[in-house]
Amino acid sequence: MLSKKELGKFRDAREELHKKDEPYRRAANSDFIIYLLTLMAVAICIRTFIFEPVQCIGDSMYPTLMNGEGMFTEKLTYTVSAPQRDDIIICRYPYHTEKCVKRVIATPGDRISISDGAIYLNGEKLDESAYWDDYIEGTLEEVTVPDKCLFVVGDNRNHSTDSRSIQLGPVKEGYIQGKAVSLLF
């Protein structure tokens, strides 16, 4: 068995030989580059198809999410099942470049209206006590959520641009990026 001193000399001699061995250096560099490219490809695939970090911008989801809070967009769930009522989703609106964080309150076929400071779902007052306990300004005549669409709103009901807006309306399933999960910071 070699002593530590002899082992050290052996390693030094090996490294000297490798420095002089051009094919070995090229192979080692190629292996390293392939490793980095593989790592980058895996990271891109994870970000594109599985998880993506996103940040809540603005106060539309207060008090559930604060301005600047980070979270992950989990992208696989909605490939096998439809979004459910009360899910917090990441979506895009047509003609908008920024991602939005909103809560699903109605799914296809549901009837939604706003009157007397409350949201009504299928004719019954929606219990929103877990995330909203104030008067909702404005009204909305009863509408039925179209197929392949979701009615989404921000938890800060009076300070959110969402499906209640005539310009935006219900969000089409194709604009849903994924489900918001795991706060980061």
Outline the secondary-structure elements:
Blueprint: H1 4-20, H2 22-49, E1 51-55, E2 70-74, H3 77-80, E3 88-92, E4 99-106, E5 111-115, E6 118-121, E7 124-125, E8 140-144, E9 149-153, E10 171-172, E11 176-183
Give a short summary of the structure:
By secondary structure, the chain is of the alpha+beta class. The chain is 26% helix and 29% strand.
Notes on the structure:
This protein starts with a helix and ends with a strand. Helix content is 26%, strand content 29%. The chain contains three helices and eleven strands. The model has no long low-confidence stretch (mean pLDDT 88). The longest helix has 28 residues, at 22-49. It has helices at residues 4-20, 22-49, 77-80, and strands spanning 51-55, 70-74, 88-92, 99-106, 111-115, 118-121, 124-125, 140-144, 149-153, 171-172, 176-183. With 185 residues, it is α+β, with helices and mostly antiparallel strands. The strands form two sheets. A seven-stranded antiparallel β-sheet has the order 1-2-11-3-4-9-10. It has a four-stranded antiparallel β-sheet with strand order 7-6-5-8, with no helix packed on it.
Total of DSSP H or I helical runs spanning 4+ residues = 3
Order of H and E elements:
HHEEHEEEEEEEEE
What's the total number of strands?
A: 11
What structural class is derived from the secondary structure elements?
A: alpha+beta
Overall mean pLDDT: 88
Q: What strand order characterises the main sheet? A: 1-2-11-3-4-9-10
Question: Which of globular, elongated, flat, extended, rod-shaped describes the shape?
Answer: elongated
Helix content: 25-40%
Strand content: 25-35%
User: Main β-sheet: number of strands, strand sense, barrel status?
Assistant: 7 strands, antiparallel
Stretches with pLDDT under 50, minimum 5 residues: none
The end-to-end distance, rounded to whole angstroms, is 52 Å
Backbone CA Rg: 26 Å
Oligomer: single chain
